[in-house]
Each structure stands twice: as C-alpha cells, then as structure tokens.
Design brief:
Length: 303
C-alpha cells in the first residue's frame, strides 16, 4: 500500500515540473523554523573565547537525499511556489518615511527562519511512517527555499568562492573592530539592529577589561552555507527583496584580556582556541550600491 502511494505521488510530481530542480541534489541539513528574538546579545567570536562552552562543537550532519522526492507533490504547485519560497515584511518605519531609496539601504530588522539543527531521523522512520513523511516534506521545503534564494542571488552575479572570501574578511574585520572598541567603523559593517546589540556588548566588555587582544589564525578551517532566505519589502514589487545567508565558520583564534594596569586577566594569546560561529549576512538585491553586512548571530547550545 505504501509503495503504491509513493508511486502515485511520483507520477503527480513529474507533472508539476519545477524549473529549479537542477539545483536540488544537495546535502540535506536539519533545519527548524524558530522565532527570531533579536540579534544575539550573547558574545560570540571575539567574544567566543569568553564562553568556552560554545567552542569546538561537532558539526550536524544530514543524510544525502534527492530533493526530487515523491513527497514534493503534496505541497508544491506552480501557482504558489513564489509565495512559499519567500516571505514578506514591512519596510522599517524610517524607510517608509524616507522613501524608496532609503528602503534599499535599511535592513528589514528580522532574521527570517533562523537556522537550528534538527534531531536526526532513521531511514526507516523517515520513509515508512507518516511522521517521517511529514518531516521529509518539511525538510524539502526548507531546502527548496535555500535553492530558490541562491538561484535569485546568482542573477545578480553571485559567486560562492568570492562571497566566502568576502565573508571571511568581514568576519575578521568585525571581530577586530569589536576587540578595539571601534564603534564608528563597526556601524558600516553591520545592520542597524545588530549595531545596537554590539554597542551594548562592547560596553559590557569594557566594564570588565581595559584592553583585548584578538587574532584569527589563517586559513579558516571550514566555512559553509547553512541556509539562504529571501525577505520581500514591497508586496507590489517581487524584485524588492533582501537576501540573508547563514554561514558556519570553524576557525582557530587567539585571545587575551587585560586590566587597566596591563595585567592579563583572561585568555592566553600563545594558545589557539577552536571556535565555531554561525553568522547571518544580509544584502539588498534591489540597490546597486548594496553590500553584505552582518545582521545576526546564532548562539549554540553546549553539548
């Protein structure tokens, strides 16, 4: 009976004919639709050495799957794919007051579907139970959203390797600016809401330590994209969208903190610490002068 249902679904799916299917033979990751609360106030990266319990966590691995799954027929149709794969949000109040030009330069102020690892599921449960089919459908939708966002980003000249190089440089720059307490330069590298959170973070750190040394040991051990999402800001124009890419960085870092007298009070710059960070970068796709900025960070639970 189950086999017959799967064969029927496969036949229906083939009639749908999704154009983006060529992108969808990718490694399945575990995702979750959690509610965004605000840019992380828990210090990360330059602040990662402050919280060693977050470091060197194992990677979440998924099972390779073909997203041309028979379950896709249950939830995808040509008429609703665009609505399904992106979200709409109101432009920030400042942007609505200042006009369309400013809209392109201001962040929507939210993280759409923040990344979170999902519990692993056995092959038999995934493919031979109703709960497994439901989970597979959810996973496919999440992967389709990422594939759709990346395909739209490619139209603007996106290159994965070029973006990774830019992201690593931005990662180093932001951590260095935070270590130096340079709030003026930091403003240009992050979104408005993220800037407010980082200012608070720097203030809290300066109340404990007078000076901080931070260094990233190159090259980066690993960098990968965990999620891609589109956020529309104009219901009447589907091209007015922001894209958010969630990246995972695995790096070795050196850290040391000093009091007002120059005495080391935390860390040891002679030692390398393995740090895993998840950062979210954002960019407008409808403004010619737009550039990538940090819009959020995702804290990780201790194992």
């Amino acid at each position: 009976m189950a086999l017959r249902s799967l064969q029927t679904l496969r036949a229906v799916y083939r009639t749908v004919g999704i154009r983006e299917s060529s992108y969808l033979l990718i490694r399945s990751r575990s995702y979750s639709n959690t509610i965004f609360r605000a840019p992380e106030l828990i210090p990360r990266s330059i602040s990662s050495p402050f919280h060693m319990s977050h470091n060197a966590l194992p990677f979440t691995r998924g099972n390779t799957m073909i997203l041309r799954s028979t379950m896709a027929a249950e939830f995808l149709t040509v008429s609703n794919i665009t609505r399904l794969l992106s979200t709409q949000t109101k432009a920030p109040p400042q942007a609505r007051q200042m006009g369309a030009l400013k809209v392109s330069m201001l962040s929507p102020g939210i993280i759409y579907e923040p990344y979170a690892p999902r519990e692993p599921m056995s092959f038999w449960k995934r493919w031979f139970t109703r709960s497994g089919w439901k989970r597979t459908k959810e996973d496919i939708i999440l992967e389709l959203k990422s594939a759709y966002a990346i395909s739209k980003l490619r139209k603007s000249g996106y290159s994965k390797q070029k973006f990774y190089n830019e992201a690593v440089n931005l990662y180093k720059e932001i951590n260095t600016l935070m270590a130096n307490g340079d709030k003026t330069s930091l403003r240009k590298a992050v979104t408005e809401k993220m800037y407010s959170a980082l200012k608070t973070e720097i203030k809290q750190r300066e109340s404990m330590w007078s000076k901080v040394y931070w260094e990233m040991v190159e090259p980066v051990i690993k960098i990968r994209t965990l999620r891609a999402r589109l956020i529309g800001v104009d219901r009447n124009d589907v091209n007015k969208v922001f894209i958010q890419l969630t990246l995972e960085f695995l790096t070795k870092q050196k850290f040391e903190a000093y009091d007002s007298g120059g005495t080391v009070v935390a860390g040891d710059k002679s030692k390398e610490v393995l740090v895993r960070d998840i950062w979210i970068f954002e960019k407008s796709l409808f403004h010619s002068g737009a550039y990538w900025r940090l819009c959020g960070r995702i804290s990780q639970k201790s194992p």
